Amino acid sequence: MSVKARYDYDFPSADRIENFGADQLVYVLWEGNPLFCSAAAFRVPRAMPFGEFVTAMVHPWAASDPDFDPGAIGGWRLFDEPLIAEPTMTMEGAGIGHKALLRFTAR
Amino acid sequence: MTHTVSRAPVTARGKLPLKERYALLTRDLGWEPSYVGKERLFPYTTYEGIKIHDWDGWQDPFRLTVDAYFKYQAEKDRRLYAVLDSFAQGQGHLTLSDASYLNSIKLFIQGITPLEYAAHRHFAFLARYLDGPAPRFAALCQSVDELRHCQTQVHTISNYNKFYGGFHSWSKMHDRVWYLAVPKSMFDDAMTAGPFEFLVSISFSFEYLLTNLLFVPFMSGASFNGDLPTMSFGFSAQSDESRHMTLGLEAIKFLLEQDEGNVPLIQAWIDKWFWRAYRVSALVAGMMDYMLPKPVMSWREAFELYFEDQMLGGLFPDLSFYGIDPPRHVEAAIAEKDTVSHEVYKILHNFSFAAAFTTQTPSAGHLAWLSGQYPRTFDRYYRPVWDKHRRIEAAGGRVFFHGLPQLCQVCQLPLAFTEPGDPATLSLRRSEFRGETFHTCSDGCQWVFEREPEKYVQARLAVHQILQGNCGGPAMADVLDWYGIQPGDNGEYKDSPDALSWARWHEGSPA
Q1: Which residues of A touch B194 (CB under 8 A)?
Q2: Cβ contact (<8 Å) for A38 and B404?
Q3: Which among B207, B241, B239, B29 is positioned nearest to B130, based on CA atoms?
Q4: Which of B133, B217, B229, B307 qualifies as a FRET site for B10, CA 20 to 30 Å off?
Q5: Is B334 among the domain residues?
């Protein structure tokens, strides 16, 4: 079903990838840690290596929990599937697209 | 202009009986257009597909006239402003239960008062654009009511602005701040719909189905926590609210009686707007259970009384006569009654560094109250997390979420809700539209999105706007400045300017 209107109802998405230049949105969920209400949202260069993304962006956020141990991070998933990504692969190269949800565990 | 009005004879002195005055005011102020077509005069009442055969079928149960209306409202205003003056002159704010109580009133003026103004604007629109004179006049009265509510709330709460943070820029905040996008986007959604959908959304779903959950908790909270002025504007608005509720019900029955083809349209709007309004009420749930130093009743108890008993038990059996079923996803809302307030306050506690109110970890006594109110969930799922916060704070720390949350495309709250019946698993829904991924927090919001994706892809999600650079700058300080949040409005309550002032003002007082 579409919107009922008195004219052609057609507007672009507010968060289309073009609005983020060479970057994109990526969400990261620390699974099973109820200290965080939800996943975090990041603006990430599509060419950024996955390993750099984890250390430069995910670690500082996860350290909101003083018990966070960077060495314990693992079990990465992309949406519901296991994520196969080498630290040197770019976000794009690892198949992590605009508005993808990544999940990890750290226990 | 050709009038086809047959005027009742008016004697030189005596006034007409109320019934005749009302008839003159409404039905007889209508006329048949002579030099433009009806569809040009009323261009908005056909495209939604609703069929109205007889606008005179609208029964206004109150039959208010302008002179009677102004007389009642003036009397109520006199009483309210007398209370405001005496509270201000007697430094009444010092007799509140605690300064932290005012966080709920900050949420109210930032989140709810601007909705009164928005309702005023849109009912003024309906007062011009509905075809029938009686519903136009009902909309006009409601438009004036809503403006009065906005004004009395601003006047009432402005007294606290002299002494406490967070009350100063509520109008700007409503347009800009992330958690206020939840009520704002719901009203924007309603105001950009057609007139009949607006009536079902605001008059019926918001003002009838959920008003006791959205409005009453603030007023009872005021009463329990010594906030006489807020309680008084609540009373002052109450008779208007009950009139609006009756009109909401009258509107929906009128639409249902006009044409059988209207029934599925109304049902779909009830399905959509129950869920939209219910998600806004989640903020009230968090407020009720966590922000009142003297809690009134738990969200669960209020939900059971005001929604399950009164609406599902009372209203919907009546509406089934018209072929209307209880709202879609109502079971999910019922399943959430033991979880939703905890999940929402967790959001506010995580992010109050970016809010115009403060939050705090519940005290031991408050935790015990929550435990008693939520025997099915609290000790198992929420107490261990609050215990961890208490340990961290005892060591001098305070956990905030050092980042931005993932937001729901429809309700615009963080994706912080859990699967119905499973409080340990986040409920994450995903849809694709025109090759782009959209995330929603629940089956309800996903259903709303997929029904009209063209509308919701335009959502101005606060987090994504920050990340696009549209909110003052990249640093959190830039964003707070752009939000109109001043240092000390936000963050942790315990070391906030409000808490420090409160302690100073009560130094040496008997306990």
Answers
A1: 4
A2: no
A3: B29
A4: B133
A5: yes
* Number of domains into which chain B is organized: 1
pLDDT of residue B2: 43
Q: Domain tally for chain A?
A: 1
| Cβ-based contacts of B44 with chain A (< 8 Å) | 6
Contacts of A96 in chain B (CB under 8 A): none
Q: pLDDT tens across B377-407, in order?
A: 999 999 999 999 999 999 999 999 999 999 9
pLDDT of amino acid A1: 61
Closest-CA distance, B300 to chain A, in angstroms, reads: 20
> For an interface test with B, which of A2, A8, A10, A13 has the most B Cβ atoms less than 10 Å from its Cβ?
A13
Residue B379, in any domain of the structure? no
CA distance B70 to B67: 5
**Which structural domain range is residue B270 located in?**
66-359+401-505
Taking only Cα atoms into account, the Rg of chain B, rounded to an integer number of angstroms, comes to 24
In a domain, B474, yes or no: yes
* Contact: B454, A3; criterion CB under 8 Å: yes
pLDDT value of residue B133:
87
Chain A interface disruption, residue of B346, B409, B448, B464, most A CBs within 10 A: B464
In this prediction the ipTM stands at: 0.98
Q: Is residue B388 included in any domain, yes or no? A: no
- In the beta sheet, which residues pair with residue A25? A43
Q: What is the CATH number of the domain that holds B217?
A: 1.10.620.20
Q: Distance (Å) from the C-alpha of residue A88 to the closest C-alpha of chain B?
A: 24
- Best probe of the A interface among B428, B452, B458, by most A CBs < 10 A, is B428
Domain that holds residue A53: 23-105
Q: Picking from B115-119, B201-205, B501-505, which range would have the lowest pLDDT averaged per residue? A: B201-205
With cut-offs at 50, 70 and 90, classify the pLDDT of residue B1: very low
Say how many C-beta atoms besides its own lie within 10 A of residue B510's C-beta.
4
Please tell me the predicted confidence (pLDDT) of residue B284: 95
What is the average pLDDT score of chain B?
93
Strand spans (E) along chain A: 23-30, 40-45, 74-78, 81-82, 100-105
| CATH number, domain with residue A101 | 3.10.20.560
Q: What is the pTM of this model?
A: 0.95
Q: Is residue A78 part of a domain?
A: yes
